[in-house]
Write a structure and sequence with these properties.
Radius of gyration: 23 Å
Number of helices: 15
Order of helices and strands: EHEEEHHHEEHEHHHHEHEHEHEHEHEH
Strand content: 15-25%
Distance between the termini: 63 Å
Length: 401
């Protein structure tokens, strides 16, 4: 089952899954837009009930937000979730962390189930508000073992009610990803209890979203947004988006943002990497190193520590998925862009690539422009992040002086 969301909506798709007692993975991808980044969602179901839902990335930040409520600060980054587990074939770090936390007696089953419910609710809120995109339901993709299961109809009813309530907040508050920022602290101090004001001053920092704040407070997004709505309406609290903040941040001059000194590493057969990709990159001024032996390349990668890696999917001994997964389990390559190269574009390959941690994929044969645009896209993003860190370091140094 697959199609376009202009032809059938998410509500109807989930109704079909529930009525047919289907088992598998519902993968949804939003349409790419020049104004909005492409997003992905995953919903695992078993016998017509939801087992788990998450976004199409490997971030643990959402889980960390929920764990804020239990036993103080549990740092999920310290958990060892790298060993392969045949009983849990999908690389869903959040789900693996929950199981390890249960095994460590860090949380109880009821708490883990509550976290899953919260995550599922979030995903459905986003998906039921989505009107453009594509979906695929794969009955061969299973997520086991099950920690809990949720009936679809009851949770859909609650989410639809929340979406309807949310519309009451327009135009002052539009998205749960928007961030509150205190605009008139004096007026807020006179209107709010001291304890509430202290929390707001700590959390309403223009960088923490309404959704994150709701997680911290163990509240749903509408309840929290409704609580701050009167102050937003009066102008005492401003609502900003992260995109707006990023545009206003100080930008370093371009001369401080040169091409990286580290080489781009290409792993795959000689035809693609050595004779096609490497010459194109070098012709555009990049240093490129091609490896044809995937096993040997792993050790050399840790010596080179490249800022960008291209890796062919179909290879002997180790395929691109396995190499990408191994690299993502290392802190050294957790954030490094890894682009998988495939001979044919298939939706399922795209899903698998994203789940194991690939940043993007490139379909061969590829043109010069396709390759160079990908390199610029991810290297410029990486250098921008380094520029921001450099700016922060300069500001810290100036304050110390």
């Amino acid at each position: 089952m697959q199609g376009n969301l202009r032809e059938i909506d998410i509500y109807s798709i989930l109704q079909v899954i529930e009525s047919g007692q289907r088992t598998g993975l519902l993968f949804v991808e939003s349409c790419h837009s020049t104004h909005c980044k492409q997003q992905m969602w995953l919903i695992f179901v078993s016998n017509g009930q939801i087992v788990y839902a998450t976004y199409g990335d490997t971030s643990l930040s959402r889980l960390q937000d929920y764990l804020h409520l239990y036993k103080g600060q549990i740092n999920v980054e310290t958990l060892d979730i790298s060993p392969a587990d045949s009983s849990m074939p999908w690389n869903i770090p959040e789900y693996k962390c929950l199981w390890q936390l249960l095994a460590n007696n860090s949380i109880h089953v009821s708490q883990a189930s509550s976290i899953i419910y919260g995550l599922v609710h979030e995903i459905l809120f986003d998906l039921l508000s989505l009107h453009q995109g594509r979906f695929i339901f794969d009955s061969t993709s299973l997520l086991v073992p099950h920690l809990t299961t949720l009936e679809i109809t009851p949770i859909l009813s609650r989410v639809i009610k929340q979406i309807q309530d949310w519309k009451q907040l327009y135009p002052y508050i539009q998205s749960p990803e928007q961030c509150p920022m205190l605009a008139d602290i004096v007026q807020l101090h006179t209107a709010l209890p001291a304890a509430t004001m202290k929390k707001l001053e700590s959390w309403a920092d223009s960088k923490t979203s309404i959704r994150q704040l709701a997680r911290y407070l163990n509240s749903d997004i509408f309840t929290f947004a409704k609580a701050i709505y009167p102050y937003v309406e009066k102008g005492w609290v401003k609502i900003v988006s992260l995109a707006t903040l990023n545009q206003d941040e100080y930008q370093l001059p371009r001369e401080l943002n040169p091409k990286p000194e580290k080489p781009i590493v290409c792993i795959g057969n000689k035809n693609y990497m050595g004779q096609a990709m490497k010459p194109i990159l070098e012709a555009h001024g990049y240093e490129a190193i091609a490896f044809t032996n995937p096993l040997e390349s792993l050790g050399l990668l840790f010596q080179l520590r490249p800022d960008l890696i291209f890796c062919q999917i179909a290879m002997p001994e180790l395929d691109g998925y396995e190499i990408c997964s191994m690299l993502r389990n290392s802190t050294v390559f957790r954030e490094v862009p890894i682009i998988l190269v495939t001979e044919r574009e298939k939706l399922f390959q795209c899903i698998k690539a994203k789940i194991i941690g690939a940043t993007d994929y490139l379909t061969a044969p590829f043109g010069h422009n396709d390759l160079v645009m990908l390199v610029k896209k991810y290297l410029e993003r990486d250098m921008t992040a380094k520029d921001k860190q450099y700016t922060q370091d300069l500001l810290i140094e100036s304050k110390m002086e």
